[in-house]
């Protein structure tokens, strides 16, 4: 149940202001820890601002939606929704300057496929990635554990799609004034696709988002669900509950309506991002390759220490000392 889920306990916030405070702290923390790497005289202008980061994340959120829509075999909507949740959660506490969104994007989708049991092999998945597929495979495998750690291993996501199905069945059963309910589906899907470009999924419950989507679709079909909501759905819960859900639905629809166009200077931002990103996390950098080599050397040493011959040698040495 959603109210007792890790999503409700750890990944839901009061409003966009709370989310922006976290993102601002993340941006400041990165700049503070990397300011010595800025070219002489560049100052803080070398780094992306909080708004720059928001623009980059939004751009790659759009690209994630396009990737999921074009995916072969066709990807279920709930996998796309879970991918979006992972992506948004990750960048609450991580700067795009630390981990590039194009790398976290494919990792989030791959992890969502596994968690939601959309069974595609790595080979099938990578066939959907343009460019160097061997490199993409390494990026996904290297980032998968990182992503899970940053999600605090809270991998179960409650999406609004099941709630939508319940509402449509209920409307068909209890609302005689509404006709052709299944004709709402295209508008519902479009609305939910837009919702995942906003912060609504981290502020409002899946059932509230589902109701907003259904009401939006009905209004586009020139049908009215007011009496269904106020009488059939919430009539027994009192006026306060009705006012609360009406406010939530209105706010969600406003968030979707106010989705901005992608910033026109995204190419400039991406160029600046390449210049100020953490080179330790850039797969094309020497620093990244050195870090991997160090990890491999550490693993080799650990493996060597645990081989039977080395363990026996240490025991023999200990026995000699005791004598």
Which features does this protein show?
mainly alpha; single chain; 323 residues; 15 helices
List the helices and strands and how they pair.
Blueprint: H1 6-10, H2 16-34, H3 50-70, H4 77-93, H5 101-115, H6 122-126, H7 133-150, H8 161-174, H9 185-195, H10 206-220, H11 226-233, H12 239-257, H13 266-276, H14 286-305, H15 308-322
Helix pairs in contact: 3-4, 3-5, 4-5, 5-7, 8-10, 9-10, 10-12
What does the model show?
The structure is a single chain. The chain is mainly alpha-helical and 323 residues long. It is 66% helix and 0% strand. Helix 3 (50-70) crosses helix 5 (101-115), helix 4 (77-93) crosses helix 5 (101-115) and helix 8 (161-174) crosses helix 10. The protein is globular and about 70 Å long. The model has no long low-confidence stretch (mean pLDDT 88).
- Portion of residues in beta strands equals under 5%
- What does the largest sheet look like? none
Order of H and E elements: HHHHHHHHHHHHHHH
Shape: globular
The beta-strand count equals 0
Radius of gyration: 25 Å
Write a compact overview of the structure shown.
The chain has helices spanning 6-10, 16-34, 50-70, 77-93, 101-115, 122-126, 133-150, 161-174, 185-195, 206-220, 226-233, 239-257, 266-276, 286-305, 308-322.
